[in-house]
Please model this.
Amino acid sequence: MTTHIAFLGRIGRYVAKRFTVGITVVVLSVVTLVFVIECIENLRRASNHDRGIDVVLMLSALRLPWLIEQVLPFAVLIGGIVAFLSLSRSHELTVARSIGMSAWQFVGMVAVMAAAIGLLTSMAFNPLAAGLLQTHSERFEQAFGDNSGRLSNKWLRQTADSGASVMRAGSVLASGLDLRSVTVFVFDSQGRFIERLEADRAELRDQAWLLQGVWVIAPGEDPAFEPEKSLPTTLSAEQITESFIDHDFVSFWDLPRQIEIARQSELNSARYQLQYQALLARPVFFVAMVMIAAVVSLRVFRFGNISWMILSGIAGGFLLYVVMQIVGDLGATGFVHPVAAAWVPPLVTLALATALLLTTEDG
Model:
């Protein structure tokens, strides 16, 4: 019994080490490549705006935590494949089975690690990545004087004593207080459409939007141009900022408040709900990736076709990622409930992979 426990502990440490190494190699490789590409692109912009290399490196580094978040699912998948292939190739899996150990013990070790990584990245790493990504957006605007990669095509509903209006901003600066390429649909207190405003710019000043370069288009009338036009609003600067903020800029712990603000402003909160549910479901997503890795790796040396099996595992993980993105887009637009969009794909994948592994290992 003592020998059995000691061997299990040794295998556990070995699997954990291989899994960690696999994740680290994938993350470092991809992030380094993307960092170099970001630096090259920012150098091109810096040459046109007389900015130094320090600005280029700062802007590129600020996006790295967010990039790591995007890479982690594939890192978990490949880390799992590396760990399980190492067991199979070194015949430690065969030895372990010969003394009565089940493959589920190895899979369970990696699955617990993956779930823990998912939990930590959602609750601790995501707030850091979201904050730095928003800082990157602000510093980018300050450095290059444009809003490339900034928020765009955002909508805002607001009310005033005279009625309601819905604004669309082609681009958003100053955290939502300075809008460009603005379209406003104005309604009276009875909800009847009055006019459409097309403005070059809108700035929030004293509970009103100051529209500049405005074309006023009303039903049955010729379009009229006005250099400036005031549009009253009852929203505070904080509410406007919260309404315009991108879901990637909102941390895990702030998402419930952001969802409530969107609801109070009568805006679509589906994307924020989806982001929150996706972060909650991340541990399950990572465990599903581990199960895919186990299915294609644990018996690969017995059946042969190593390259084909590894490629199948990577393709399976990529397919899950694509499905989650597609279903997520449907959830963000309201066609699918955000809870279902975030949880169903990883849960279904986890169930299918577990059933397949049960068949091959215990069937």
